[in-house]
Amino acid sequence: MNKGTNLNLGRVRLSGNQAVARGALEAGVRLATGYPGAPISDLQGSFEQLAGNLRRASPFAIKVGEALDNANYQLTAHWGTTTNEDNAFALALGAVICKGDFKSREFLTEDEWDLVYGDTVFSEDEEKRVPVGSRVMCSFKHLGGNTAADAIRVAVNVVPYTGGLGIASGDDRQGTASQTMQDNKVLFSSHFRIPTFELHSPLTAHQTVKNCYRLFEELGTPFAVIMNYDLSYREVSVDLAMEVDLGANMRQKGFTRDPKHLVTIGPHIRPRENKFHSKLIPLFRKKIGEYFDFLGNKVQQLGERPRTLLLLNGPFREDFQLLRHDPTLKDRLLKKFGGNVAVETTVVFPQPESLYKKLLSKLSIDRIFVFEEGYGRVIYLQLLDLVNRHGLDAKVFDCGIPYEPRIYERFSYIDHILAE
Amino acid sequence: MVALPNRVLQDHDETTFMRPVSNCAGCGDTKVSWSVLEGMKRFNREHELKGKNRYQVVYAADRGCGNLQGYHAYHIVDTIFCMGSGVIVGEGLKESCSEKQIVVTASGDGGYNFNISGFKFAAKNKKWGAITIVYNNYNIRMTGGQIPLEVDFDKEGKAMGFEVLHINPYHVDDNAELFKELMGRYLNKEKTMVVADGVCVVDMAKDTKAVGLNLGHFVKSDECLDLKFKEERERVASEEPEKLKDLPRFKCRLCGIGLRCHALLNNDPTLCFGCGACKQFPCPVGALSFEGPSFADSTRIPELLTMYRV
């Protein structure tokens, strides 16, 4: 079923937005919906060009578009035509709930499959295959999440039929092109409680997006990836080698009736809501821990006898990589924190508790420093909750910044980490 | 540091009792649902489509009592999500459903006003055909008698790109024929908006009563198989009661089950709301008729007055 096609397209400049588009295309996304607004318009504009709704103007769209055309890739895009984010999301929701095909289990055990699919019309499948259909991406700016909130909340209620749905949110935490500087990590993590990730680099974003589709489609849940303003627009040069999942793109279409899931009325949604919070979120948490590396996260020890855990998310994570090129920065880090374990993570929610518990108990860590951007403090609060709930002997420090600094502020994330 | 107890959500059984669904006997939404299903059957029959070659309806509905009845009573409704989302969810379904599935969407007039941009999207999307049903209860019937936003479906629907068709929801047979035709037009990528005018019979019956017009009721002749069988059951009950348990409870309730009508199911004209849908119901022995005014004559009360009260 997994019919991968390799496309080597040479050197191109790629923005964060285009990197997310690349990840979605590599995952075989068949429908892209969205509503424009800075900083994410560029992502949807790419899909519009690739789908043939607009003239292909960017080098990315020209090169990738030609290659996908030759591979008979199926792509439909609806951008401004949906009039608002709520309609864009409802359109995506309609497309993703059609499960006309199956794939073999890749990430779930049989018991986990029973938990996710045991009460659906697919529960009788003897091989316990995963029902699948079109992979879909819906994207909007941070405030679009408010407009689409009604439909997103319903998408949570119809899990596992929303597996294969990715949401890309462009966060204007600078207030450069928006009336507010909303932190959408709060919306997706605390309100909708769906797996949420903050991307950090145009070099790696595609891999995270693609692997999120693979993992969370099987878990039957939508997921959200968030970029800040800078990442959305910042360009890097890359050798564009794409591995496109054409098998996913060309799946059989078809709608399978399951009104007990898809007609959202009280008696149907109450048990699902209960199951989502009490059983599925713990499963997502466990799977994120098991596939931590697969989702593009890294754990590394720096120095001897580490007593400190550093959690680096979003732009802090990207700047932290400067340590690899500048030994003086590493010296400053060791001087400030001593021996430490640095967790470079895209995961915003749910945090893999077992991983942290293991690190804390194995290495006698007693201090946790959380570096994240945005006023929500979503990661910090989850770590604080973990330590309190389990009575762990560690202190958690909030070292984030509440908004994204603008370029003229000359803010340095690595200096913020290393500041005395 | 104090360890707090591990809080884990417990499993709870569904504590809300599933109420038996008590549809209004004359609900117009339900009659339209019947016509859609019947129209699909007739389309397949006319084109001699069998087995896997048959077309199926995928029914994307909005929130509202009418569509809940479509779900509970006819098992026709496939999705109900947010208010106003039915039509746009339907467009999404078209992207991923099979070519043998025809997506029909149904909204109330409140849902239409809520998401007119969704209707516009459906009308402008050149990739697919569209059958969008609007249950027009004049926006004042259900939620609390709110002041309605005036809608001119003919002008607005046409401006968006739909062909607008008004139907009397109680003309169940005519409507089934119409939907049969619309299924074919859907496959030719035509866009139709079907406005079912006057779907809330309970509220309209209050209005007719207020102006002094009493609606009629159904009549079953002696040919009715169920009435004949009822007499047989009564005889057995009095003469051979031990044999009663071997008899079925009824012989034929096609009309009551088909129209989901309590009055017909109970053979009790006093429960009849006077919708008149049974006038067009294809009774196998022709035993069903209607006496007096009904909404099948017209859903406009002034017209009914002219017809029956001179």
The rounded distance between the terminal residues' Cα atoms of chain A is 54 Å
Biggest contact:
A-B, 51 and 48 residues
CATH H-level superfamily title of the largest domain in chain B: Thiamin diphosphate (ThDP)-binding fold, Pyr/PP domains
Average pLDDT number of chain A: 95
CATH architecture of the largest domain in chain A: 3-Layer(aba) Sandwich
Residue-averaged pLDDT of chain B, rounded? 88
So, CATH architecture of the largest domain in chain B? 3-Layer(aba) Sandwich
Q: Residue ranges of chain A: pLDDT <50 for 5 or more in a row?
A: none
Name the overall outline of chain B.
globular
Taking the sheet with the most strands of chain A, its summary is: 7 strands, mixed
How would you describe this structure to a colleague?
The complex is a heterodimer of chains A (420) and B (310). The mean pLDDT of chain A is 95. In chain A, α17 links the parallel β15 (367-371) and β16. Chain A has two domains: 4-290, 3-Layer(aba) Sandwich (Rossmann fold); 298-418, 3-Layer(aba) Sandwich (Rossmann fold), CATH 3.40.50. Chain A has a seven-stranded mixed sheet, sandwiched between helices. Chain A has a five-stranded mixed sheet with strand order 11-13-12-15-16. In chain A, strands 1-10 form a two-stranded antiparallel ribbon. Chain A has 420 residues and is of the alpha/beta class. Chain A has helices spanning 16-26, 41-50, 59-70, 85-96, 110-117, 144-147, 149-157, 184-191, 205-219, 229-233, 246-249, 259-262, 266-290, 315-320, 327-337, 353-363, 378-390, 413-418; strands at 4-15, 31-34, 76-78, 101-103, 130-132, 136-141, 165-171, 196-198, 223-228, 235-245, 298-302, 308-313, 340-345, 347-349, 367-371, 395-398. In chain A, 41% of the residues lie in helices and 21% in strands. Chain B is α/β, with parallel strands linked by helices and 310 residues long. Chain B has two domains: 28-199, Rossmann fold; 208-308, no CATH class. Helices cover 38% and strands 14% of the residues of chain B. Chain B contains twelve helices and eight strands. Chain B has helices spanning 28-46, 65-72, 86-96, 109-114, 116-124, 153-160, 172-187, 201-210, 225-239, 254-258, 262-265, 301-308, and strands at 56-61, 79-80, 101-108, 130-136, 163-167, 191-197, 217-220, 288-291. In chain B, the strands form two sheets. In chain B, strands 2-1-3-4-6-5 form a six-stranded parallel sheet, with helices on both faces. In chain B, β1 (56-61), α2 (65-72) and β2 (79-80) form a beta-alpha-beta unit. In chain B, α1 crosses α2 (65-72) and α1 (28-46) packs across α7 (172-187). At the A-B interface, α4, α7, α13 and α17 of A face β2, α3 and α5 of B.
